[in-house]
Write a structure and sequence with these properties.
Elements: H1 2-17, E1 39-44, H2 54-58, E2 64-70, E3 81-89, H3 98-102, E4 108-111, E5 125-126, H4 128-133, H5 152-156, H6 181-184, E6 195-196, E7 199-200
Antiparallel strand pairs: 1-4, 2-3, 3-5, 6-7
């Protein structure tokens, strides 16, 4: 019995020796990264940012610090904010993506990097200058307008090449070219243009009550 158990154990070993290895020799080899990966290199578009600090407000860990001052550039319209500080403490970030979801102007994106390790915690703070000068490789996390992006014209025309959630993605944040603030855009569909006060007026079926008519009385045979 003892020798039979050893033979069974060796058979398992021999069986696995003939299998093709599935490990990746990092960093020489890298697994293809999904576009929705929530990475460390946050992408921030200053042209879209209004300084509303919604990202800092909804961050559950309070790692985003924003300081603004009146810009004096649009007094008749109520003025705008001048961003002076936009710091992200990366060492405490849990990459939940709530800051990206809270941004109403698509100014903040999750990044595509995961190699920001440092020897000092002081070096793990992303400053506003780093956000401005960094190459823009946004993640498609909570940004469906980037799904299926293949070139400069696919987003502007509003015709994604693949459906959302399709595993055959074509957009590659790690290997693709940097994207400008115009290219990341807003969503391509137009369903929100028919909304008013939170109601999708074009999709709500009209009822006799909404048309000002009296609803018919139910019959006994119904």
């Amino acid at each position: 019995m003892y020798g039979l158990a050893m033979v069974k154990g060796l058979m398992v070993t021999l069986k696995n020796l003939t299998r093709k290895p599935f490990t990746v020799q990092y960093p020489e080899e890298r697994v293809r990264q999904h576009p929705r990966f929530r990475g460390e290199e946050f992408v921030w578009y200053e042209e879209r940012c209004t300084g509303c600090a919604s990202c800092a407000k909804y961050c559950p860990l309070g790692i985003i610090r924003i300081e603004t001052s009146p810009s004096g550039s649009a007094i008749p319209q109520g003025d705008k904010y001048r961003l002076e500080v936009f710091d992200i403490e990366l060492q405490r970030c849990m990459f939940c993506g709530l800051c990206v979801e809270a941004c109403p102007y698509d100014a903040l994106f999750m990044g595509s990097g995961f190699e920001q390790g440092q020897y000092s915690r002081k070096n793990m703070i992303i400053t506003i200058d780093q956000l401005r000068n960094a190459e823009k490789h946004p993640s498609t996390w909570f940004r469906p307008q980037l799904e299926g992006y293949e070139g400069d014209t696919s987003i502007r025309r509003g015709t994604p090449t693949i459906a959302q959630g399709d595993s055959r993605f074509t957009y590659d944040p790690r290997g693709g070219p940097p994207l400008g603030w115009r290219e990341v855009g807003r969503e391509a569909w137009r369903w929100h243009q028919k909304e008013k006060a939170g109601m999708r007026l074009g999709q709500i079926p009209e009822t006799p009550e909404s048309a000002g008519e009296k609803a018919p009385e139910p019959r006994a045979d119904d």
